[in-house]
Task: inverse folding
């Protein structure tokens, strides 16, 4: 989840939030852990974007990528967003009067650290095509997990739709911020946001330093594990630890048994909650992590982050891993990894 080097999804929410069971109606029905996720990952492979200024036929700007060419005749003045990632980026770098509509996720504090700003703006809407068209947007930001039918309806109505296909890594998140900045003519603001995010990431990694290197980590919640090509995996590797699910070749958010987690016997198990004070869901006992007190619940909105707010996830994971390493050291240091059935 972990190219956001080129453009990704909120996910989320699309990504980590998918394990919470708390998704607005349309999104809950349009994205699952099976075939559609595979199709999404296939789209990410074609997600290289070309930013042209001026665009073809004398357009102000043009963005090409993901099988689309989005031409903008002038700077957009009525911008709509259908993804949490672009909601949050727009709230940070766009002039408020240019934001015509945000997705339902934007105003939900369970998912977004920007919820208060979104509520102050007062333009949080729904996912329906009719509601989006009602605000007469001259640019809509969408994601690869939005339904193709909806995207086609918007394009048929003559609305430019910029689809960000990649939210799978820290690099992709940076890329998405820059693409949004380019598309709305706020490049300087986008660069400042990237620089601020990167500074927080580097400071978090410095705090974790060698203490967390090699720690074997699993994110497991409600029967779903986070594997490779997720933001979680990218962050874990960025901090120097090992995501066991990715090490075992798992990709995305596959379902596995609690028994398999026990066989892996990780040093640390992360889970997440979208309810205040919510408990971990389906996290197994009988692991080194459980024995050491290294089963750690993080706020769902941190786990869902695929905008600049991912810096909060990195900071909290770094600090949690450092504390877990201290508990392991007090218990006698790392133990050999279990060799279980794959």
Result:
């Amino acid at each position: 989840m972990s190219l956001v080097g080129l453009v990704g999804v909120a996910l989320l929410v699309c990504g980590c939030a998918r394990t919470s069971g708390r998704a607005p109606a349309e999104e809950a029905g349009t994205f699952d852990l099976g075939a559609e996720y595979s199709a999404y990952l296939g789209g990410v492979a074609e997600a290289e974007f070309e930013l042209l200024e001026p665009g073809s036929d004398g357009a102000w700007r043009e963005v090409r990528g993901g099988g689309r060419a989005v031409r903008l005749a002038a700077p957009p003045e009525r911008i709509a967003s259908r993804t949490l990632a672009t909601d949050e980026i727009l709230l940070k770098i766009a002039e408020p009067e240019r934001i015509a509509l945000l997705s339902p996720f934007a105003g939900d504090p369970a998912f977004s650290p920007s919820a208060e700003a979104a509520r102050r703006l007062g333009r949080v809407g729904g996912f329906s095509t009719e509601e989006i068209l009602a605000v007469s947007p001259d640019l809509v930001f969408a994601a690869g997990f939005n339904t193709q039918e909806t995207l086609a309806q918007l394009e048929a109505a003559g609305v430019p739709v910029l689809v960000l296909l990649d939210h799978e890594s820290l690099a992709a998140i940076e890329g998405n911020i820059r693409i949004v900045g380019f598309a709305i003519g706020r490049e300087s603001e986008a660069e400042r946001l990237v620089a601020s995010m990167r500074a927080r990431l580097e400071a978090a990694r410095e705090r974790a330093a060698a203490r967390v290197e090699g720690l074997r980590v699993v994110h497991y919640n409600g029967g779903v594990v986070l594997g490779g090509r997720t933001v979680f995996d990218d962050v874990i590797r960025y901090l120097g630890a090992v995501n066991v699910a990715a090490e075992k070749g798992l990709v995305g958010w596959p379902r596995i048994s609690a028994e398999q987690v026990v066989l892996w016997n990780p040093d640390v198990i992360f889970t997440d909650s979208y309810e205040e004070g919510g408990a971990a869901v389906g996290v197994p006992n009988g692991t080194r992590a459980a024995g050491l007190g290294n089963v750690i619940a993080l706020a769902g909105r941190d786990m869902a982050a695929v905008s600049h707010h991912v810096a909060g996830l990195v900071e909290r994971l770094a600090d949690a891993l450092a504390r877990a390493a201290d508990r392991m050291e007090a218990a006698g240091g790392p133990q050999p990894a279990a060799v279980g059935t794959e």
User: Anything to note?
Assistant: Residues 1-34 have pLDDT under 50 and may be disordered. The radius of gyration is 20 Å. The chain is about 40% helix and 15% strand. The chain has two domains: 16-197, 210-330.
